[in-house]
């Protein structure tokens, strides 16, 4: 990955056996699995092991040239403190504007653009989830065929309920997350709410007056079906009320048509999950190249996952467009450090057994591979968890690395397209936005041929360049955003639950 590195990873499917001789004379003295590191030189105990020209650890004992360098042989470096970081010191590369690219999207009254036309039913509390799901199934079976321009109906189910300390300062995070998800561009501003009636998070608290941009057609009052309302006698009365309300919104959504909009209307969330050592070699660099294309085209791109960029904090604060943006990043990292500390863990709790099996020794190595998704542009903004994005360019949206929480928070930020890279493989999907999945290895792309949308493994195979895969992804994004193509997750209707980030106490 860098000329100064003293380790490299084995790219070959299935790994390589002991005795393998490379053209430069390097000989493996033991079997090295695919994606795992091999020592390029003798590494005496205490030597900094360099990958991406960054110390990913220190040798715990002498490691001979040609050995397998796994996590058991490395002492992880301490985290960089948040003191004396470089603030906006790096001159961003001169990225020429990229013009002439567009997609077909649904323009909303508030100016945002949807990539899908979905009726979303907001819920105030988990108690109503079963009723809403029952109603959603009936809407799909009995109503949806009458509205051919509506793509789907989704109940926004979540775990928030009365067992939460709703007035705790951190409760603002789950509450604004739910509010802002209701306003996601893919729902066309057609907010309808199902509430129970007695819950702490009352509909008016979730969506206070003024929180929904009012279009010409819409009634000023919030559309709420309250299950405990006296008018409801029997379960079917509740379901019928939800269906009657849905019809009003379906009519309006069905009247909408796609129109040609510039690529700058894309709001893309990138993340990774089930990462391996190839993530930072193939898929994430290709996504990073594509991120630069999107930023050049005037779009918004969010990268997230605090613990997976924490070890690169100095690189990020240097890349901030202004000292204020750098300070905002430090503020988010400090908040997260304290959050982890309260649970008596640190960022090293991030890596999974699968990450390690895939060759990633620790969070430092994982972070260096993860951060490249952000490309090379200046970082022009920072979002706290659950906040709504109001600007273009490259944004750091602070979220946990958990795939579902990260996706949920990026949805709240207003994401209309999601890009997800994976090396171990995950069938991840969201019902609310299309998710384009990028495989880091050809072996995964071959085996999961009907789940992976892009094979970035061709980069390691020598069959495609980072730039080629980056452009391929960019064009696929425009096709998917336009509805001309569906992702595999959409094709199979695979989607995961919304998972709220609730750092507030639960009672
Ligand atoms: Ca993730």
> How would you describe the shape?
globular
Count of discrete domains: 3
Helix content: 25-40%
β-strand percent reads: 15-25%
What Rg is obtained from the alpha carbons, in whole angstroms? 24 Å
Number of helices: 14
Q: Provide the residue-averaged pLDDT.
A: 95
Strand order of the largest sheet: 16-17-15-14-18-19-20
* Estimated structural class: alpha/beta
Biggest sheet record: 7 strands, parallel
Distance between the terminal alpha carbons, to the nearest Å? 49 Å
Q: Write out the distinct hetero groups bound to the structure.
A: calcium ion
Count the E strands: 20
Give the uncertain stretches in residue-range form: none
Please characterize this protein's 3D structure:
There is one protein chain. The strands form five sheets. A seven-stranded parallel beta sheet has the order 16-17-15-14-18-19-20, sandwiched between helices. It has a four-stranded parallel beta sheet with strand order 10-9-11-12, with helices on one face. It folds into three domains: 1-75, Archaeosine Trna-guanine Transglycosylase, Chain: A, domain 4 (Roll), CATH 2.30.130; 118-254; 260-492. The chain has 507 residues and is an alpha/beta fold. The protein is 29% helix and 17% strand. It contains 14 helices and 20 strands. It is globular and about 80 Å long. Bound molecules: calcium ion. Residues 271-273, 305, 401, 403, 406 line the site of calcium ion. Calcium ion is lined by residues 271-273, 305, 401, 403, 406.
């Amino acid at each position: 990955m860098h000329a100064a590195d003293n380790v490299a990873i084995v790219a070959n499917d299935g790994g390589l056996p002991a005795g393998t001789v490379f053209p430069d004379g390097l000989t493996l003295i033991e079997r090295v699995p695919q994606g795992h590191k091999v020592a390029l030189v003798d590494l005496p105990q205490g030597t900094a092991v360099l990958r991406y020209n960054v110390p990913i650890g220190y040798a715990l004992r002498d490691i001979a040239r040609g050995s397998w360098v796994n996590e058991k042989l490395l002492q992880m470096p301490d985290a960089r403190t948040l003191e004396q970081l470089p603030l906006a010191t790096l001159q961003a590369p001169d990225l020429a504007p990229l013009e002439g690219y567009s997609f077909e999207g649904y323009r909303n009254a508030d100016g945002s653009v949807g990539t899908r036309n979905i009726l979303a039913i907001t819920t105030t509390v988990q108690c109503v989830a079963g009723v809403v799901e029952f109603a959603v199934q009936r809407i799909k079976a009995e109503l949806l065929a009458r509205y051919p321009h509506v793509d789907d109906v989704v109940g926004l189910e979540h775990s928030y309920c009365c067992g939460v300390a709703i007035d705790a300062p951190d409760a603002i995070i789950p509450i604004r997350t739910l509010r802002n998800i209701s306003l996601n561009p893919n729902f066309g501003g057609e907010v309808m709410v199902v509430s129970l009636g007695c819950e702490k998070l009352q509909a008016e608290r979730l969506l206070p007056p003024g929180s929904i941009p009012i279009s010409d057609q819409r009634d000023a009052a919030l559309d709420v079906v309250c299950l405990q309302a006296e008018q409801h006698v029997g379960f079917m009365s509740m379901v019928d009320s939800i269906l009657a309300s849905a019809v009003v919104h379906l009519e309006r959504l069905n009247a909408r048509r796609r129109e040609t909009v510039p690529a700058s209307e894309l709001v893309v969330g990138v993340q990774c999950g089930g990462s391996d050592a190839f993530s930072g070699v193939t898929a994430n660099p290709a996504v990073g190249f594509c991120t630069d294309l999107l930023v050049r085209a005037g779009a918004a791109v969010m990268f997230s996952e605090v613990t997976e960029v924490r070890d690169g904090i100095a690189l990020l604060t240097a890349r901030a467009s202004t000292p204020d943006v750098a300070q905002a990043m430090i503020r988010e990292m400090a908040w997260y450090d304290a959050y982890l500390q309260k649970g008596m863990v640190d960022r090293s709790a991030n890596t999974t057994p699968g990450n390690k099996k895939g060759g990633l020794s620790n969070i430092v190595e994982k972070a260096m591979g993860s951060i490249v998704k952000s490309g090379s542009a200046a970082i022009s903004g920072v979002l706290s968890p659950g906040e709504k994005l109001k600007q273009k360019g490259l944004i750091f949206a602070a979220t946990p690395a958990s795939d579902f929480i990260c996706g949920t928070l990026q949805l709240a930020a207003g994401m209309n397209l999601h890009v997800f890279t994976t090396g171990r493989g995950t069938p991840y999907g969201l019902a609310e936005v299309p998710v384009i999945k990028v495989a880091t290895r050809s072996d995964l792309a071959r085996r999961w041929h009907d789940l992976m949308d892009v094979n970035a493994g061709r980069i390691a195979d020598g069959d495609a360049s980072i730039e080629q895969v980056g452009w391929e992804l960019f064009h696929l994004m425009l096709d998917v955003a336009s509805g001309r193509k569906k992702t595999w997750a959409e094709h199979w209707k695979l989607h995961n639950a919304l998972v709220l980030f609730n750092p507030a106490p639960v009672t």
